Structure formats: C-alpha cells, structure tokens
From TrEMBL:
Gene (name only): nop2
Keywords: Methyltransferase, Nucleus, Ribosome biogenesis, RNA-binding, S-adenosyl-L-methionine, Transferase
PANTHER family: 28S RRNA (CYTOSINE(4447)-C(5))-METHYLTRANSFERASE-RELATED, NOP2 YEAST -RELATED NOL1/NOP2/FMU SUN DOMAIN-CONTAINING
InterPro entries: MeTrfase_RsmB-F_NOP2_cat, MeTrfase_RsmB-F_NOP2_dom, Nop2p, RCMT, RCMT_NOP2, RsmB-like_ferredoxin, RsmB/NOL1/NOP2-like_CS, SAM-dependent_MTases_sf
Renumbered residue ranges of the record's region Disordered: 1-26, 72-110, 523-639
Comp. bias intervals (Acidic residues): 76-89
Species the sequence originates in: Sander lucioperca
Protein's name in the database: NOP2 nucleolar protein homolog (yeast)
Subcellular location: Nucleus, Nucleolus
Taxonomy of the source species: Eukaryota, Metazoa, Chordata, Craniata, Vertebrata
Assigned protein family: Belongs to the class I-like SAM-binding methyltransferase superfamily. RsmB/NOP family.
C-alpha cells in the first residue's frame, strides 16, 4: 500500500532519483581531480556523456578563431542571397495571388446553382443521378430559395425552383408528392430537411419506471448491473429512463417480467402528464391499447379510484390485459366498445383521455410505409372519425365534477387537419374551452394555417417534433368542460313542438267553421291504446306516440270529426281516453258499438256504391275545410283542462 496523502496539505519533496544520481557522480569525480597543474580537467555539464576535455593550446585557439571567421562570412553571404530570393518570392506571390483570384472567381461562377435545362432533364429521365448529387442539389436549391432575391437565376420563377425541390425530395427521401407538399406547407424550407433527416433515424429506446413496484434509482442500478447503458430521460420526467445500448434484451430482463418498468415512447408520457389524474377519480381511457397510458394513469392514482380502459379492437385489448396484470394494476376495468357510442354505455367521468387513431405522420421513423401509403382521402377519413370521437369523449365528461371535468385530445400525427381543425370543431359544437396543458416545453399550436383561421386559444395546445425534441411527432390539447348541456341548432319556424321526444302527450285538433267560430274535437291520445272505427267497419287501435298519423287522419276525415264535435258532451270520465267504455261511431250509415262491430261477410252492390260516394264526399269536405291552427297558436295544457272542466259542467246540466 502506498502513502496516504492529504490533498489539502502540500509537502515539499526532495530531489528526484535522477538528479540525486547526477549530483553523486559529480562529487565522486571531484575526489580524484587536483586543482593545480596545466592539465586541469574541465567537466562538461552533461557529465553522463563520459567526455573529458583538456585545456586548449594557443595554436588550437587560433585555428578555432579562423574557423569562426569563415562561418560568419558564409552566414553574411547567405543573408544576401536570402534577400534576393525574398524579392523574387514576393513578385511570384503577387502573380500567384492574381491567378488565384481569377480561379476563385471562375469557381464562384461554377458553384452558382442553376436549374437544369431541357436536355439535362431528358438525360436525368433516362439515366438517374446518384443520390450524392441529388442531395447537394437539394442544399443548393434551398439556399437559393432562402435568399431568392439575390441568388436566383435571371428569368426563372420561384415555382420552378419549388417544383425541382419537390421532385428531388421525393427521390432522395422516398416520399410521395402528396406528403411532401403537406410537409412543405407545415415547415419552413430550412427546417424541412431537418425533419426529413430525423425521420430516417430511430428514436432512442425509453422505459417508464413503475412506481407501484419500485423506484427509478433502484431500477437504474439493477439495469446497470446487468450491462445496460442508460441515463435519466430529462428534467421534465421523474420516471423515464433512456437506454443507449444493452448487453441483454431490454424486453426480457427479470425486472421487466416482474413489472418494474414498461417499454414506452417518450411522447406517450406527455398526454398522461397533461391529464394529471387525481387519486379517487373516475377516469376513462377511450383508446387504451396497448396499455402504456392506462398503467401510467393507474400509478399516478396509486391504484385508487376507477379507470375504464376501452378500445374498439378486441385483439389489441389482449395486450392491455397482459400489461395491467404484469404491472400490478388493480383499479382498471377493460371493455370493448366503439368509442363513438360510448356515452350511451356510461358517462359522468372526471377525466377522459382520447388518443385518437390517426394517419401516423409523426411516427414515420417507426413505420416508413407512411411515406408512400397516405393520401388526401386517408387524412380526411381520419379527421372525420376524430371529430366523432372527440364529441363522444366530451359527452362522457362530467362538467360538475369537483376535481375534474377535463379532456385530453392527442394524436401521433402532425397534420393540421387531424389536430387543430378537430379541436376547433369541438369548440364550436360543445360547451368546452382550451386550458394550458401544464407542459413547459413544445411548440405552440397553429391559430392560422393557409386560408384557415382557428380559435386564438389553440396556442395553448402543444406540438412535438422529432428534430426539435428527439421524440415522435405528437400533438396534445387539454379541454375543460363547463356545461353538460349539449348546444343544438336553432329550430326552424313552426317546429316548436316535437312528438319524438314526448313519451306522453295530448293532441287536440280544432276545426274552424266558415264563421271562424270553433268547436273542440274530443280526440285525445294518452299512454293507453284506444280503439277507433275505420271506414270499412273494422276497429283500429291507436297507439300512443303515433301522433303524426292521427293528425293526418283527423284532417282527412272531416265529416267524422264534425259529427263528434256536434255530439252532446259527457262528463269528465267520458272525455279521458281509455279502453273501459266502448265508443259509438257511425260508419256507412250504420251504428256500430265498440269492438263488437263486425265486418259483413259479403257486401252488396248498394253498400259498395254508398261507401264510394261517402269517400268522395269526405274528400270534398276535406278540401273545403280550413287548415288547423299553427303550432304557435296551439292550445296549451292549462287551456285544455279548463275546456274539459267547462264541457263537464255542460254535460252535468
């Protein structure tokens, strides 16, 4: 063991081993040398060479002086030659500089970007250029477009440069024209190449610590011991770890199998952090597969409250079940419903998370097929589905929740049609407003895009890009519901009363005479079915809820309605509709009592003739009769009760 040194106490040490040896040699040699005599020894400073020099004789000293003179004369002549050489070099250097300037000017002219002519384009069509040349041309083209006024070629328009750039980008990065055009609308040209380059590189592997079973510090130490090179994900996450390389498969370690961590992308942390679920709440994850966000919500809630994990795809729910069991989550119910119909199943949630299905333009690094497989129809189809889902998600939220009433809408797409456009649609259709997400990084959402203008509060939403934040492209918006009332479009004039939404109702048809005096028609419909005689003599049952048909029938059968109106009014019990008493009606000149009326087996010719004449007469009367009162002048419930009371008194008298 060596000496234990105190770094604060500096101790001066003696000479080293080499210097001690040299000093010892000098002292030993001095013992044998006498100071007197002509042959005094002179010890050279480099004693280790072993050379000993005697005192020089006068002849030797003279020869040495002559030699020094010759050397000095030679040095002077060399200096003169050097001066002449320097003058010549200066002249040559000036000439070389002139030549270099001309060459540099020629090089600048050659380096100036020019659009390919017709012949070059034809040659490219036959023989494709190498990717290195195309990449250099993309850089030069973007440089010209960024400084178009100074670097453009005379007589060339900006559209020509843009067209060439689109073609080169599609060739070099293997995108279709539709997607390149969309990305050029989203990003500045200087940022576009960075985004495309970032999509060619895989995002780092990230894991989320399951705090229900372990701590991040303990998990990191256990994985380091297994040969995993990792670091904390960032200051914005307390549970994330980023893995650079590993000597063992990260998805098969004992820690993974015991549920201590979950393989999850960094961008998937963001919506759950924005949702910020509280302990004891009722939370809905509308599109939960494969379960990363659901289990993160459960660990933030510490296995309290209730989480409903729903997904429309039953096969994908198998992974949710597996992850929920592996990570030790006990407060989750898993169900399989179409998200658009979920409010009909259950509602009243404190918080809802909707990770809507999308085109996947933010995860091109994971799925390169997106480069060529997406078109305008796919984007519009996704946007339409997302609009339906976000309305259902809002309807599932309880605005009166004391702690919640929040909805998180997120997608792994960067298209405006699937993000800001959908949220703006929801703001117009429901009583919701945008609130800050609580994420302290990310770019603001668009409030205007091309010809579209969105709600100003959309700047509170957040966008994440692979080239800026080193994670998958993502969009997060947080909405607060402030009313459970669903806004409806204003009803058209005359449609103030709707039969569809009334289980029990009363309809009164009032017929006007020529002198504008009216007589009430005692035709009432209640919850109990009522029997009505038809023209043919059969009795028909009137079912509540079919008021439209009753109204049309009353208008057509004007004669029967008038006869009923002119009949002597009875007591209150007789006016209320019900199957207790049989009704008397006159059909084809004969009196039929209740349901005992039976159709004759064979009709005579006279009866057929009479029935035909009667039908013609009824049609004529229907044409002459005035239309019923408008909806705004319809008799109300209180007036009807007074009318019943009045008719009852008259019947009693």
């Amino acid at each position: 063991m060596g000496r234990k040194l105190d770094p604060t106490n500096k101790v001066k040490r003696g000479p080293g081993r080499k210097s001690r040896k040299q000093k010892g040699a000098e002292t030993e040699l001095a013992k044998f040398i006498t100071d007197d005599g002509d042959y005094q020894l002179f010890i050279k400073t480099h004693i280790n060479c072993g050379n000993i020099y005697y005192k020089l004789l006068p002849i030797e000293r003279a020869a040495k002086k002559a030699k020094k003179l010759k050397e000095t004369m030679a040095l002077e002549s060399d200096d003169d030659d050097e001066k002449e050489d320097d003058d010549e070099d200066e002249k040559k250097s000036e000439a070389d500089m002139d030549e270099e300037d001309t060459v540099q000017a020629n090089m600048d002219e050659m380096d100036k970007f020019r659009l390919p002519g017709a012949e070059e384009s034809e040659r490219e069509g036959i023989m494709s250029l190498d990717l290195k040349t195309i990449h250099q041309r993309i850089k030069d083209n973007i440089d010209v477009l960024c400084n178009f006024s100074t670097k453009r070629e005379e007589g060339k328009e900006r559209a020509e440069y843009i067209s060439l750039l689109k073609k080169d980008l599609c060739t070099y990065y293997s995108y279709n024209h539709f997607l390149i055009e969309k990305l050029m609308d989203l990003f500045p040209l200087s940022e576009l190449v960075d985004f495309l380059e970032a999509n060619e590189i895989q995002r780092p592997v990230t894991i989320r610590t399951n705090t229900l079973k372990t701590r991040r510090r303990d998990l990191a130490q256990a994985l380091i011991n297994r040969g995993v090179n990792l670091d904390p994900l960032g200051k914005w996450s307390k549970v994330g770890l980023v893995i650079y390389d590993s000597s063992v498969p990260v998805g098969a370690t004992p820690e993974y199998l015991s549920g201590q961590y979950m393989l999850q992308g960094a961008s998937s942390f963001l919506p759950v952090m924005a949702l910020s679920p509280q302990e004891g709440e009722l939370v809905l994850d509308m599109s939960s597969a494969p379960g990363g966000k659901t289990t993160y919500i459960a660990q933030l809630m510490r296995n309290t409250g209730l989480i409903v994990a729903n997904d429309a795809n039953a096969d994908r729910l198998k992974s949710v079940v597996g992850n929920v069991h592996r990570l030790g989550v006990t407060n989750t119910v898993i169900c399989n419903y179409d998200g658009r119909q979920f409010p009909k199943v259950m509602g009243g949630f404190d918080r809802v998370l909707l990770d809507a299905p999308c085109s996947g333009t933010g995860v091109i690094a994971k799925d390169p097929a997106v480069k060529t497989s997406k078109d305008e129809a796919d984007i519009q189809r996704s946007a339409h589905l997302q609009k339906e889902l976000i309305l259902s998600a809002i309807d599932s939220v309880n605005a009166e929740s004391p702690t919640g009433g929040y909805l998180i809408y997120c997608t792994c797409s960067i298209m405006v049609e699937e993000n800001e456009w959908v949220v703006d649609y929801a703001l117009k259709k429901r009583n919701v407003k945008l609130v800050p997400t609580g994420l302290d990084f990310g770019k603001e959402g668009f409030t205007r895009f091309k010809e579209r203008r969105f709600h100003p509060t959309l700047r509170m939403s957040r966008r994440f890009y692979p080239h800026s934040h080193n994670m998958d492209g993502f969009f997060v918006a947080k909405l607060k519901k402030f009313s459970n009332v669903i806004p409806t479009a204003p009803a058209a004039k005359g449609n103030t009363f709707s039969y569809e939404h009334m289980p029990t109702f009363i309809m009164i048809v009032i017929l006007f005479k020529n002198n504008s005096s009216y007589a009430p028609e005692a035709t009432a419909v209640t919850d109990s079915p009522e029997e009505k005689p038809s023209k043919s003599g059969k009795t028909k049952t009137i079912v509540p809820g079919k008021a439209g048909g009753l109204k049309r029938k009353a208008q057509a059968n004007g004669t029967e309605a008038k006869k009923t109106a002119n009949a002597k009014p009875k007591g209150k019990k007789d006016l209320s509709a019900g199957p207790k008493k049989a009704k008397v009606a006159k059909v084809d000149g004969e009196t039929v009592k209740g349901t005992e009326a039976k159709k004759p087996a064979v009709k005579t010719a006279d009866e057929t003739k009479v029935s035909k004449e009667g039908s013609r007469f009824e049609k004529k009367q229907g044409k002459k009769r005035k239309t019923p009162m408008k909806a705004k002048d319809r008799m109300g419930k209180n007036k009807f009760r007074k009318l019943k009371h009045l008719l009852g008194k008259q019947g009693g008298e």
